[in-house]
Structures are given as C-alpha cells and as structure tokens.
Amino acid sequence: MGWWQIPYRKGELKAVAYDESDCIIAADIKGSFGDASRIRLSPDKKQLVADGTDLIFLEIQMEDDQGRIVENANNRVHVQVEGAGRLLGLDNGDSTDFDPYKGTSRRLFSGKLMAIVGAGLEPGAITVKVSSAGLSDSVLQLESLPAHPGTIQGISAHTCIAKVEAKGHEAVVTALGDGEFRLRCTSRNGTDKTKLISQLEFKASGLGTAYLDPYGFISAGLYQYSKGEVGNGNDRGVATSRDGETQVGFRNIDFGA
Fold first, then answer.
1. In terms of C-beta density within 10 A (0-12 exposed, 13-18 middle, 19 or more buried), how is residue 242 classed?
2. DSSP state, residue 69
3. Where are the alpha helices (DSSP H) in the chain?
4. Are 49 and 142 in contact (CB under 8 A)?
5. Element of type H or E holding 66
6. SS3 for 36?
7. pLDDT, tens only, 18-65
8. Do the beta carbons of residue 107 and residue 99 sit within 8 Å?
C-alpha cells in the first residue's frame, strides 16, 4: 500500500503499478471535479415483486456540471417514495451521523447515500423523488410486478369474542361479544423464524354474550373450564395429562334451533 500527499492541482491523476520486470500490472485514474450541480440516482434494479419483502437498493450521488461524480459531496437530500412501494431506510456509512435510519432526510457521506425501497403487497408504479437545496429534483420511476399466485394472502381469523381480517398492511378487528382479548402481530420478514412485532389488548362490552358455533371449527385453546392437568399443545390446542384424568369443557355453545 503506497501513500503520498501531493499539492492539489486541477486535472487528472494517474497511478501505475509495475512488477519486477517493469511490466504494468495495474493502473487507475482519478479526475478532479467541481461542485454538486445535479442529483444522480443509480438503482440496482428497476423492478421488484409485490410480495412485501423484495428490495431495491438506490445509490444517491452528486454530479458536477460536466457529469463527473462529486466524490466528497455531503449535501443533505430528502427522499420521497410514492405508489406501490415504501421507503425502508437511508444510510451513508458515517458512524458519526446520528440521523435516524428510518428518516426521510440524510446527508451524503464521501459522496454517497443509500436508500432502500421496499415492495408493498399491491403491484403498480413506484415514484422516487429526491430533492436537495439549490438543486433540481431528481425523479426515478420503478415498477412493482404481481407476485406469483399463492405468495401473498390476506389473513382472516376469529374467536368467539372477535374476528380479524387483514389485507396488506391494514387490519379490521370486529367485536362479536363481551370479553377481553389480545391481538398479536408477527412477521418472518424473509426469514424462517416468526418474531412478535406488537401486541394490543382489547375489551369489548355492551354486545352481550358471544356464543361458540359447534358446527364450525373450535380451537381447543378456547376452553372455559377444565379438571386435572392441562398444558399448552400445538397449534393453539391443549395438552392433557399422561397419567391422570384430564377434562376440558366449553360453555356458551349455541346449537340454535
């Protein structure tokens, strides 16, 4: 590794490496550049799949009036994503920068900033707009393609007290009867492990008693009384005692007429 300090002079600097036989084995050229004149956007791809997990990595740089990269630019930029995508984060690699990764504005560091654009669950056009004080806005058009059948699905579940219907990033919770319940949001986020993201507690009143439907599926985990040893089973079920007697029962079952 060679290290030289030389006075700055506008123009081109070329480094050439030779081996023992004075043969050129490597060369590199660096050119001088002016002040930032416009914003350059360089995505790693222009299409993603609307599966909620696909990503586009967008490199943000500055060019001078000759189209050369401004390698020491530290301009602050604002990033806006509209349409069938979302801005997941911004990072510049500067360990001394305390701006949040989840913000919409950050400075370039050593002339670069990375924006991560994530797919939603609906296909369509994605518009990325990057602006900076004193410069013209730069707009990039991306596309979110439909996912393969079976990749995305809404979530629908219910107990005797409430039901939840989810599609995309929205969920509707409907109370069916009086009682207390909790709603948990989990995500695998592209991995094989499910992680608990958040949990909300609810209490419904004024609706009366909620009855179980004996002609549909009733989770064993919804039992209301028991006798003997009862543990947690698989798939929201119950585990009974291996040695002693265990009884599990349900109340408020509506057989109708």
1. exposed
2. B
3. none
4. no
5. none
6. coil
7. 999 999 999 999 899 999 999 999 999 999 999 888 999 999 999 999
8. yes
